Input
Amino acid sequence: MKKKTLIRAVIIAMVALVALAAGLILLNNSENSQYSEKRGTMTEGFGQLKTVTVGGVKYREKPATTTLLIVGVDKPEATENVAEDSYRDGGQADFLMLVVIDHTDKKIHQLQLERDTMAEIDILGIFGNEVGTRTAQLCLSHSFGKTPEDNAKYTIRAVERLLEGVQIDGYYMIDYTAIPTLNDALGGVTVNIGFDMTSVNPAWTKGSRVTLRGKEAETFVRSRMTIGEGTNEERMVRQNEFMTNALTQMKRKAKADIGFGEALLKQLQKLSVTNMTVKRLAEEINESKDYEILPVEYPEGEYRIGDDGFVEFHMREGAAVEWVLEHMYTRE
Output
């Protein structure tokens, strides 16, 4: 895919999308502010669009699409057993969402990738040197590298390979420890308990409706092994439940407090890594704010138990190509 030099995105996804969600709040009051600067169109200066032929059908790349990778990182607390100069302790990419902004059709597509998807990831040696690739769970791609920027780089590489060469224009990656901060800033996110979660909280019976407080929010979106069948598929449902309700409450906060969005972003800055600034975020939202946001989609595939006893998700062969062609190309 053609690499764009600027980010133009509006995002909708779980807590990993909190930066843009807060940016949306900034936008509600930014028509006459420092965030409302207008930029030129991405289509200006583009070269010849890429064409591909699949199954005898010719497809042409859409003239203006932007891709953004949103990642929620699960990084365990440091222990004495982990060396300070480790290149394999970046944490796991526990939540991955690819957002494709289609500026031609004015639509926003969302593809949530299963963390246990088997993918080709980069491997680093003990001295930080790249020693090749191997097939492993996609989430493990984030563990390699010395800095958060390195971790992001290897995750992006893995996703680009998985999606047959789609290039990521921008990224926003945030640690899951930011969830209580986000939750409490919203006054507590209210969610429906769709699974029996009494193993982690006796009050969380199936069918109940609760308002999460503090660390409860992190427990709700991260717990897996002792809930239901223990699959990440079930956890993804809860993550989207949290996401949807959090965004609704953010809009309410925006009406009550004009400075809410910017204050929240500053709170989360130390827990995130991105190649976007708050100002750029608001500018890009301004252009895409009226686009149709389509429902989250998931690649087809099947779950298996690997030889090591861990869950693996095997994406159906051809599923990635089909999704990319449908959302980022047009038939000629």
In short: DSSP finds eight helices and 15 strands in the chain.
